[in-house]
């Protein structure tokens, strides 16, 4: 590495030669080579804290298992254990510097973790960084392990940890929509199909639908999380378990379950589990489902708030910023818009994961780094998108009650509620007349002698129009006068 002449350094050596390493760096030569080789993303793995914690959890579990089965000196195992705990607690994350996109199937990430944890342990022992004769990143911290079981296991554990906070935020957003459903329970509006007026409903029902669909996504994400809980620790290079003690796999699993709190299990076929990455594809697909449904909700919020004068104007979104540098007073739906863009990104990331899963060859998939980056980024962005949608938008939504009431009052769609009483033909004729004259449907029905004013008022009550109160008894249809039926347009649906 090119270093300033005044920078204090230490020399580290690997099979390719020697390099100068900054004296204060906890990472070592393998990490230094990765920094030279992969100046791609300019984003270190530390941008995903749960991945870093998961790596430390795997190292800690391995140290405990190796000590338990007698293949690692107890004093060394204790140092590694303590150093890993510091990383789990959030310390030294800035030392995890390798890029999220890298060649080598994650080897650089695994070595970054080995070097950082080893050098923390050396300091705990009162030793200098780089004193690998005393404690080795490979022979000790990486004992009984390979990148090919450490890295995918750490990804799965990290995603399991990350998913918990995503689900918490998703549930908070669901509850925010439920609160609005209660607030708007009595606000009648015109429902729409294919962007055309349909039949009445309440604004509360619309928001309740948003909450329900987010609840379904919560269930699907929780179910798909279990696909991630099958790990291949003990597989080492290709699944045969070469260099491991027979007791290592069950021991490391037990410790990793305890450390992570996740319901992990060892794969029944370690060769298959090491080469196959289908679980990542399934989990990514569930994230995409959530993102797309969230985007659809945001589309609806933008439509419902459009205008405010020349659009739907049914609801008001909180004004978050000036909307134009040229049009005074313009306010845009910036929060739903940013959530839309997150959804587009998640959909793209899912395609990346799909292609990377397909690209695996023989006993290992070399493209797990881009799989990990894609899924961790999707979770991170979705979580933050849900937060800003809830706090900066949904919580502050208000209803334009007067406008909604006027729209329902003048809507010909309400006549649908009267078709069981006056028949489709008469209803169609009166709907046409209402559109042509601008008169209210209720007045036309009464004037035609088809129903009394009280009967019309009862059937067009908010409870009946929104379906909250239904009619279940047999309904006799009034025979409409010939002149009314004659005005009915032909049914072309």
From TrEMBL:
SUPFAM superfamilies: L-aspartase-like (SSF48557)
GO cellular component, one term: cytosol
Keyword Lyase: yes
Gene Ontology terms: biological process: aspartate metabolic process; tricarboxylic acid cycle
Source superkingdom: Bacteria
Record's keyword terms, sorted: Lyase
Span of domain Fumarate lyase N-terminal: 18-348
Domain Fumarase C C-terminal intervals: 415-465
Any one GO molecular function term: aspartate ammonia-lyase activity
The keyword Lyase appears for this protein: yes
Enzyme Commission number(s): 4.3.1.1
UniProt-listed NCBIfam families: PRK12273.1
Protein name from the UniProt record: Aspartate ammonia-lyase
